[in-house]
Amino acid sequence: MRNHGLAAWHRVMAEGNPPDELAKILADEAVFHSPVVHTPQVGKDKVIAYLAAAGQVLGAPGGHANFRYVRELVDGHEACLEFIAEIDGIAINGIDLISFDRDWLIRDFKVMVRPLKAIGKLRELMAAELEKK
Amino acid sequence: MRNHGLAAWHRVMAEGNPPDELAKILADEAVFHSPVVHTPQVGKDKVIAYLAAAGQVLGAPGGHANFRYVRELVDGHEACLEFIAEIDGIAINGIDLISFDRDWLIRDFKVMVRPLKAIGKLRELMAAELEKK
């Protein structure tokens, strides 16, 4: 089974996660799980805020952080996309663990990052980006 | 394609990752990537040391840390296994990202953990466990 949601995600990601484009590929009841905080962020608007901020911090593939996906596992309506990036000389390695609903909209988006130093850096940059709103 | 390595991993994991059993399912040139440190640990002996220590810290499924897998993505020779656990009241959520070689031996094992508090806890416990050797 082809995962139809993944192509849409890659297209929006390539544009740097603009909020109006994110709105088209997220389910209304979407949930975001940050690498830093335990509590899930529930609802489309919150997920848009986080993914748009991540787009600003990490940039589009090929952007300032040299963000790029290096491995992709697809299993039905689930996908695990491994990425690498580098910010201020700190190597970042992480995954986007994405669940799509029956209409191929994103209903659950979980991010994990390694190593520890990279999480500290991302937390700092994401907090600054989210405070701009 | 059925992933033949995964059943072997689950069997060894259920026993708490005994080193002699790990040795049977790891490739000689296996590599381990910790959630904490950037530098990969290269070679079967090092990978055994880390996975055996993780087995002690997190325990077998159903053990003291209530470790259990909650999601499994399988794509050819790659697998992403999401787990949850709880240690000293701290909720741990993570993934084992495993690559198998053509003989279904584990050649690359990467762990990522969230949230930040859980990584701190795991780092502390893993360091204590590895120092016992």
- Any idea of the CATH class of chain A? Alpha Beta
Look at the structure and give the mean pLDDT of chain A: 93
Individual helix count of chain A: 4
Sequence of strands across the biggest β-sheet of chain A: 2-1-6-5-4-3
Indicate how many domains the architecture of chain A comprises: 1
What portion of residues of chain A is helical? 25-40%
Q: Unreliable runs of chain A, pLDDT <50, ≥5 residues?
A: none
What is the CATH topology of chain A?
Answer: Nuclear Transport Factor 2, Chain: A
How would a textbook summarize the main sheet of chain A? Answer: 6 strands, mixed
Instruction: Specify the overall morphology of chain A.
Output: globular
CATH architecture of chain A: Roll
Strand-and-helix sequence of chain A, N→C?
A: HHEEHEEEEH
Radius of gyration of chain A: 14 Å
